[in-house]
Amino acid sequence: MNNQSTTSFTTEELAEQLKVSKLTIYDLIKKGELRAYRVGRQMRVDAIDLEAYKESTKSGGVSASPIPHTKEQPMDSTNEVNEAFTEEPPPHFPTFATRQVIISGQDMSLDLLASAIEKENIGYRPLRSYQGSLNSLIAMYNGKADIVSTHLFDGDTGEYNIPYIKRILNGHSFIVMNLLARKAGLYVQKGNPKNIRHWRDLQRPSIKMINREIGSGARVLLDEQLRMAGIKGNRIEGYEQIEMNHIAVASKVSNGLADVGIGIEKAAALVDVDFIPLIQEQYDLVIFKRPDNKHLRDSILRTLQGEAFKNEMRAMSGYDLSMTGTILYETP
Strands 174-188, 274-288: parallel, antiparallel or unpaired by DSSP? Predict the structure, then answer.
C-alpha cells in the first residue's frame, strides 16, 4: 500500500509544514482548496490531498479530479466545514468575541501580518485570500475583503496604487499604508541566452513569454509598459499563456518552456533563473475606515511600525522597508 494514502496530518502539522498560520489552513479548508475530514473534534488532511493542493498551486489551477475519501466522516460541504470550525476554534480567540477579517493578496508578508493580528488578540480572526491586486480591490468594493494588498502601476502618472484605489473605491472611506517595496522585472534563463534586457525585447519574434493572469499586479505592470511602448500584447508569443503566481512563472522559464516571464526578484532566488530588475514597485495595504474597525486599523499600524514585524520581514530578505507603516493616503 502507498504510504502516502495512509498518512494524514493535523491542522497544526500542516501549518508547520507549509510555514503559514493555522488560520490560513482553516481558510484553505473552508474554501475547498484543501480537502479535509473530521475525526471526532479534530480535522485531518491526507498526505495525498496535501500533495494535490501543492501541485494545483504550482500549476496555477485547481486539481482536475479530487481523489474521493473513504473515511466515515468526509468533509465535503460548507456546513461540515463550518461545523468543524465551531468544534475546534483557533487558539487565542474566544468564539463569541471574534470577527473574521479577510486579508487578500499573495505576498508572504501577508501571512506574517495575519499572524501578528492573531497574536494581538483584539477580537479578530484573520483569514487569507490569494487573489491578485486588481481582483482584491474589486472584492473589497463588493464587501468580500477587509484588508487588501496592491501593487498596481499606473503608466499615465507613474504612480503605484493610489490612482486605482481612488477609482475603484470611489464613495468609500479608506486608508492606504505602505507595507513594503520590492524589485519587479523579468525572469530569464540562466546566463540570459536571448539577451533580454527590457520590455521592448518581448516583441522580438524569437522570444516566447509566460504571462500572469488578468487582475494581478504583475499583469497590470506588463500591460502598462507595453501600452506606453506602443506594443500590442497579442503580437507577443506566449502572451495568452498564464500562470497564477510568481513561482509558477519563474519555473516555466527555468524549465525552458518560456524564454521570459514577469515577476518579483524574491521568486528568482527560489527558482533557478536570472532576474532583470526594471522597476521598484510599491506594495501597499488598503483598509476601509469605519467606526467598527478602528481597533483593527490601529493594530495594523502598530504592527507595521514595530521593530518585531520588521525584523521578521528582514529575515525573509528582498524587501525595502524604509516606508513600511507610512500612511500614504487617507480619506477624510
Answer: antiparallel
pLDDT in tens, 42-71: 778 888 888 888 877 764 443 333 333 333
Q: How far is it, in rounded angstroms, from Cα 74 to Cα 254?
A: 39
**Euclidean distance between CA atoms 260 and 237, whole angstroms:** 11
Is a pLDDT exceeding 60 seen at residue 94?
Answer: no
Instruction: State how far the alpha carbon of 39 is from the alpha carbons of 42, 83, 280, in Å.
Output: 5, 13, 48
Lowest average pLDDT, out of 39-53, 83-97, 189-203, 273-287, goes to 83-97
Residue 320 is classified by DSSP as B
Angle between helical axes of 109-120 and 22-30 (0-180°, round to 10): 110
3-state DSSP helix/strand/coil percent for the chain, to nearest 5?
40, 25, 35
> Which runs of consecutive H residues, i.e. helices, occur in the chain?
3-6, 11-18, 22-30, 47-59, 78-87, 109-120, 133-141, 162-168, 217-229, 246-254, 265-268, 294-305, 307-316
* Euclidean distance between CA atoms 206 and 194, whole angstroms: 8
Q: Within 10 A of 159 (CB to CB), how many other CB atoms are there?
A: 13
Structural domains in the chain plus CATH codes? 6-89 (1.10.1660), 183-281 (3.40.190.10)
More confident call, 41 vs 254: 254
Cβ contacts of residue 237 below 8 Å, gap of 6+? Answer: 205, 207, 208, 209
Sign of CA dihedral 169, 214, 21, 125: positive
**Phi/psi at 144 (5° precision):** -110, 10
Give the model's confidence band at 128: pLDDT under 50 very low, under 70 low, under 90 confident, else very high. very high
Spatial separation of the C-alpha atoms in residues 42 and 172, rounded to whole Å: 41
Q: Which residue has the cell 473552508?
A: 30
How high is the pLDDT of residue 40?
A: 61
What is the pTM assigned to this prediction?
A: 0.72
